[in-house]
């Protein structure tokens, strides 16, 4: 498919969480239908999508039937098994492409790719057992962070190593999974860039946002971020470089550490990103519409920022604050329709417009 998708076409989304839900809303505004593929029951995206397939990612027959029912496939979840992607791709284009997924599914491949582009990451080394962890600590030093190479998110699958004596406990915490040791970056703050690339190769970046985490989970994203003009353009250039190198189509999130030595890339996410939710209140075209435009082969929209915004996640029981939040007039509320409140679960977010730029 190289022609733009016409309204009425169907977009397949792997993963039915809040990102899939907000993508489905954006897609339906553009006249598309969405078909969600999600292993779990009652996915948040199911409330707003035209169709839902409930099946595991290993069910090749269900995946093939899904691929046959859609015009393009995208995802909100990057850990789909390779064999499943092979089955899907034989039938229908996947955007962003397989390389973007492969690079971001595995932290070592991701860092090899980023450093290969000349970008700076934390020093890193592959760890497969206690002996290789000890060798990595000798090479990189402490403090350091041990992370599972795959399937880590929101700070899960990570252990801090303050001295070499912490090595056995840190390795035990990985449960035998291949891991990467990263040198600890002494950053002043964290920012992220949400960027998009269209099917025609055009690139549009949103203004970088400044992220604050609590207990390993994103708490707030604030626009504007504290960045010098040079840092701001560096952030955007880093994102554009990654997009072009991957021949990427869609929205990408790039997390960066701000240090006196410059910007250091923490990780990339080949999808719409929690730290891009502020665009719903700060831009004419938000990250969700931008992603749908890109994968549908439409022109990218205008992502310039017209307001200062603070996005705050509603985690677990934060959702109890909704009645009070509803009384704040300039606060945009987004709830994900999750029935069960659990500690650490993302239940929704709010975007507060602090100041309109004219
Ligand atoms: P990650 O899951 O890799 O995004 O890590 C979650 C959070 O842990 C990041 O947002 C940082 O706050 C912190 N972190 C991760 N890696 C490092 C590092 N190499 N140095 C310092 N802090 C880190």
From TrEMBL:
| Annotated InterPro entries | ATP-grasp, ATP-grasp_carboxylate-amine, ATP_grasp_subdomain_1, PreATP-grasp_dom_sf, PurK, PurK_C, PurT/PurK_preATP-grasp, Rudment_hybrid_motif
Q: Give the UniProt keywords, A-Z.
A: ATP-binding, Ligase, Nucleotide-binding, Purine biosynthesis
- Residues annotated as binding ATP are 107, 147, 152-158, 182-185, 190, 213, 266-267
For this UniProt entry, the molecular function terms from Gene Ontology, in alphabetical order, are: 5-(carboxyamino)imidazole ribonucleotide synthase activity
Ranges where the ATP-grasp domain occurs: 111-296
Q: What Enzyme Commission number(s) does the record list for this chain?
A: 6.3.4.18
What's the catalysed reaction?
A: 5-amino-1-(5-phospho-beta-D-ribosyl)imidazole + hydrogencarbonate + ATP = 5-carboxyamino-1-(5-phospho-D-ribosyl)imidazole + ADP + phosphate + 2 H(+)
A Pfam entry, by short name: RS_preATP-grasp-like
Q: In which pathway does it act?
A: Purine metabolism; IMP biosynthesis via de novo pathway; 5-amino-1-(5-phospho-D-ribosyl)imidazole-4-carboxylate from 5-amino-1-(5-phospho-D-ribosyl)imidazole (N5-CAIR route): step 1/2
Against PROSITE patterns, the record matches this protein to: ATP_GRASP
Family stated for the protein in its record: Belongs to the PurK/PurT family.
Q: HAMAP family this protein is in?
A: PurK
- Biological function: Catalyzes the ATP-dependent conversion of 5-aminoimidazole ribonucleotide (AIR) and HCO(3)- to N5-carboxyaminoimidazole ribonucleotide (N5-CAIR).
Assembly with partners or alone: Homodimer.
Q: What is this protein called?
A: N5-carboxyaminoimidazole ribonucleotide synthase
What organism does the UniProt record list as the source?
Pseudotabrizicola sediminis
